[in-house]
């Protein structure tokens, strides 16, 4: 799905604003009248003209526009004389014979022709029977490609209305932005179709396509009017359209309910060879998706692109750095509709998977960057689409769904057919709700990474027939040094019978004491049980009612039920930050600065459940901890964040780079990986290339000795004074050594003239 999202899903790639680069800063284009004709599929060329109606924002003597690949032959105007014009790469400069005064309104007609531009994704694409444009490009920077077929201010802040006249063979069908006003037969084997877009839209959103299309039609009764549904499909696809778009009306109704009336002329899709693009009224839709099936993949594309009518097309992000306002909201929306068609549980499942994927992939692949400050090479990346979506999900739960829906309607209306920045969205929500959104946006949008929230400890006190609960909350931040305020977060209180009650809490600062009064005494408190907030934490729930294994891959943990008399509820919270430390760690001990686990275990009977913690010396996981091959990996335990870390019995299978640490009969509490340095418990004393391996190290009871080769001889254990304290024989490659009777300290094990050191706890 990641490949699909990055390469096929609506890629609204944007350039730096042309106005900020100087192009178009002195003019406001009001209208484009585009005439396209003489399409040559062999040469992939066109002959065209565009009349631009514009208003001068300052006194000017020249006009600059964007145009790529095509050659201008002449420029004329009835209102002002054109001195001359020139082209330099993508810039068309038109010099005027006199000064055009501020607020003056004129029209320029530009005649041009030539071979059209395209790249792997965007531009003008040709085949035997089809020609179409895609308004943005993967490779081009800036990404906007309206300039590949008409001269324009090719940014998303300068919006205009359109008339498009398309002269094509009379046997072909056109599908363009807007509504078809008329079709004129030219009596020469061609016809001219006139399409009209009355709304003001950005240049990348205008489109044309023509070819051997068949029109499939339906209507949707919107909240204000009857809206046409048009799908232009290839002849061999037409029988598959109804099955593919079976839920389109339901999706449209959901979006109108949540975001307000559908803002454009029709709900339109056209079959193209290269994925999906949210052109107004004429969404480019991958041919492969028109397969007669209503799968989630198909529906998510239909929904994603349709949602752009509100997020991106009606309201457009102000800068390319704010692309999450388009694509993040659209990606959220293509999951949000699931609540209506399939229920909250289905939405939550998809959103939980998305949150988990973001933790593992977003920042590790694209770096630690704020959501609102995207560079051009990451405009269509995971941060914009997926992290943008989970931040919108978090915003919805921060405000509450009812308030969120109301705010979205107000937001869409306030910025209708305008551009908006992240700061303007923040201020608008604050205005609509009387909730200061500064801290929320600082934490989730303007700061790299994600917060991590946890219950440090809690206590309960009986108060009549109720219980007063005192909770110490903690916040940390993955990816930045940031402390948020005005935090809203959900806790779930669980009693001995597994009854649950969820409560929203609020606090400021790194640590805070929260009090709640409940009708029952909780035995556990779960953080964000319903995954309403996309903090950097993998959380999973598992009810063990029979023996067997349950692995949580992203959390790097496996639960192994060895004996079950009844059922056991287990919850794993894998936080991607370093845990807080009470007091001082033992000399030579380091704990992981990047992750730890909180495990809740609630038994209804007697059970034995082991836990396997996985470690790996990679950048994603434990490279910050396992800095030396001579360090010894361990797992530490504490009852909660108010207690010190302490050793716990375990066994280990692996080496200094990767392996599994098993703790028998896991208990509720926090667990973290740690490492003893070489001086205190080094794995290897003499030779880093030793053919022997010992584990666990440190150890309490038993020591596993492994050899690379079959060996027959003595195994000698000595203390730091060189005194032999234990001696035994080995005949083979493995030996289990009982060291329970040894006092605590450092010892040496010698076998086959090789020597290693271990720590007896």
Summarize the SSE layout with pairings.
Blueprint: H1 2-7, H2 18-21, E1 27-40, E2 45-56, E3 60-66, E4 71-76, E5 82-88, E6 91-100, E7 105-115, E8 123-126, E9 130-134, E10 160-169, E11 173-174, E12 179-185, E13 190-201, E14 209-211, E15 214-221, E16 226-233, H3 241-244, H4 248-259, E17 267-272, E18 283-286, H5 296-307, E19 315-317, H6 324-336, H7 338-341, H8 344-366, H9 382-399, H10 401-414, E20 418-420, H11 422-433, H12 438-444, E21 450-463, E22 466-478, E23 487-494, E24 500-507, E25 511-518, E26 524-527, E27 537-544, E28 548-552, E29 557-564, E30 568-575, E31 589-591, E32 596-603, E33 607-616, E34 632-638, E35 646-647, E36 651-654, E37 658-663, E38 669-676, H13 678-681, E39 692-695, E40 702-719, E41 724-738, E42 745-751, E43 754-760
Parallel strand pairs: 1-10, 16-17, 17-18, 19-20
Antiparallel strand pairs: 1-2, 2-7, 3-6, 4-7, 5-6, 8-9, 9-14, 10-13, 11-14, 12-13, 15-16, 21-22, 22-25, 23-24, 23-26, 27-30, 28-29, 29-33, 30-32, 31-38, 32-38, 33-37, 34-35, 34-38, 36-37, 39-40, 40-41, 40-42, 42-43
Helix pairs in contact: 4-5, 5-6, 6-9, 8-9, 9-10, 10-11
């Amino acid at each position: 799905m990641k490949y699909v999202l990055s390469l096929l899903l609506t890629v609204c790639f944007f350039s730096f604003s042309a106005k900020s680069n100087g192009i178009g800063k002195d003019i406001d284009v009001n209208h484009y009248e585009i005439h396209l004709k003489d399409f040559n599929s062999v040469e992939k060329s066109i002959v065209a003209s565009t009349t631009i109606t514009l208003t001068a924002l300052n006194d000017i003597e020249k006009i600059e526009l964007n145009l790529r690949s095509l050659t201008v032959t002449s420029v004329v105007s009835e209102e002002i004389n054109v001195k001359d014009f020139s082209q330099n790469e993508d810039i068309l400069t038109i010099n005027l014979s006199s000064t055009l005064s501020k607020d003056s309104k004129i029209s320029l007609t530009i005649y041009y022709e030539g071979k059209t531009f395209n790249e792997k994704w965007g531009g003008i694409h040709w085949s035997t029977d089809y020609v179409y444009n895609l308004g943005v490009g993967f490779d081009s920077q800036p990404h906007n490609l309206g300039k590949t077929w008409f001269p324009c201010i090719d940014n998303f802040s300068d919006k205009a209305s359109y008339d498009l006249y398309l002269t094509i063979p009379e046997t072909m069908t056109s599908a363009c932005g807007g509504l078809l006003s008329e079709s004129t037969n030219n009596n020469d084997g061609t016809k001219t179709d006139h399409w009209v877009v009355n709304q003001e839209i950005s240049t990348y959103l205008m489109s044309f396509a023509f070819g051997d299309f068949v029109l499939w039609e339906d209507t949707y009764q919107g909240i204000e009017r009857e809206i046409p549904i048009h799908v232009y499909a290839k002849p061999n696809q037409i029988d598959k359209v109804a099955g593919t778009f079976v839920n389109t009306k339901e999706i449209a109704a959901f979006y109108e309910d949540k975001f307000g009336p559908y803002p454009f002329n029709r709900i339109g899709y056209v079959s193209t060879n290269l994925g999906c693009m949210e052109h107004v009224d004429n969404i480019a839709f991958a041919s492969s998706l028109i397969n007669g099936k209503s799968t989630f993949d198909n529906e998510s594309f239909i929904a994603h692109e349709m949602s752009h009518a509100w997020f991106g097309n009606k309201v457009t992000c102000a800068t390319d750095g704010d692309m999450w306002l388009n694509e993040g909201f659209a990606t959220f929306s293509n999951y949000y509709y699931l609540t209506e068609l399939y229920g909250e549980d289905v939405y939550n499942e998809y959103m939980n998977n998305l949150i988990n994927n973001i933790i593992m992939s977003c920042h590790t692949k694209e770096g630690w960057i704020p959501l609102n400050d995207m560079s051009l090479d990451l405009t269509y990346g995971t941060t914009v689409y997926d992290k943008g979506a989970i931040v919108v999900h978090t915003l919805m739960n921060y405000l509450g769904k009812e308030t969120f829906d109301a705010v979205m309607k107000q937001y869409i209306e306030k910025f209708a057919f305008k551009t908006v920045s992240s700061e303007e969205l923040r201020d608008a929500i604050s205005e609509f709700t009387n909730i200061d959104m500064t801290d929320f946006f600082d934490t989730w949008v303007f700061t790299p990474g994600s917060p991590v929230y946890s219950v440090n400890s809690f206590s309960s006190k009986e108060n009549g027939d109720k219980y007063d609960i005192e909770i110490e909350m903690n916040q940390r931040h993955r990816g930045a040094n940031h402390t948020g305020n005005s935090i809203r977060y959900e806790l779930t209180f669980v009693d001995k019978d597994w009854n649950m009650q969820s409560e929203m809490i609020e606090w400021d600062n790194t640590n805070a004491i929260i009090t709640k009064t409940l009708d029952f005494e909780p035995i556990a408190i779960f953080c964000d049980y319903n995954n309403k907030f996309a903090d950097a934490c993998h959380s999973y729930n598992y009810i063990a009612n029979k023996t067997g294994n349950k692995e949580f891959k992203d959390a790097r943990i496996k639960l192994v039920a060895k004996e079950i008399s009844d059922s056991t509820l287990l919850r794993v919270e894998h936080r991607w930050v370093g845990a807080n430390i009470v007091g001082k760690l033992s000399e030579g001990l380091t704990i992981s600065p990047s992750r730890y686990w909180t495990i809740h275990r609630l038994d209804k009977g007697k059970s034995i459940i082991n836990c396997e913690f996985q470690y790996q010396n990679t950048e994603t996981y434990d490279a910050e901890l396992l800095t030396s091959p001579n360090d010894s990996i361990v797992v530490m335990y504490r009852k909660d964040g108010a207690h010190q870390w302490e050793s716990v019995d375990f066994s280990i299978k692996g080496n200094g780079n990767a392996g599994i640490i098993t703790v028998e009969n896991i208990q509720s509490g926090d667990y973290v990986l740690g490492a003893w340095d070489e001086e205190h418990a080094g794995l290897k004393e003499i030779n880093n290339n030793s053919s022997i391996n010992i584990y666990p190290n440190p150890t309490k009871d038993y020591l596993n000795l492994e050899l690379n080769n079959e060996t027959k001889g003595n195994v000698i254990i000595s203390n730091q004074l060189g005194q032999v304290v234990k001696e035994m024989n080995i005949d083979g490659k493995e030996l289990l050594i009982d060291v329970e009777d040894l006092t605590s300290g450092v010892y040496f094990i010698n076998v086959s003239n090789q020597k290693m050191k271990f720590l007896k706890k």
